[in-house]
Amino acid sequence: MFSIRPALNFGRGTMIVGELALTTAAFFSGAAVYVSAAEQPARLELDDKDLLAEWKRSYKLGAAQQAPLVFIGALLGCLAWWQMGDWRWLLGAAALISAWPYTGFVIMPTNDRLDAIGLEHAGPESRALIKKWGRMHLVQAGQGIAATLCFLWASA
Length: 156
Hints:
The protein is an all-alpha fold.
């Protein structure tokens, strides 16, 4: 395989780092797919006030879980690239860490608008924003899946 830097031979530890990167990306992907495929459709069945309340609580908990997974998985992917010299690890790390700027620049304005709406003001606007948020969240699932596939490819 073409390498953009020579591999450093650290023995079995190099593959463990790659396996951990793959596992972390798969955890992130699984959580993102679950939110898009199960949680978002279920919450959309709620009335507007309960929908907004559930989204606010769920988003806070999900962000606390998913942000560290992105950072740790990307860091492990970079370390695997550094140790093994295979560019596919770096590609997977880039796919995974791309969730941070995407969240910050694309999703965060919608999050901020939803956070600013009090439960007593929940209605068609908050429902439309949550539907929009769900469509944007699908991209994060795609980023995680892309990273997972890159790491799987690199580990093959």
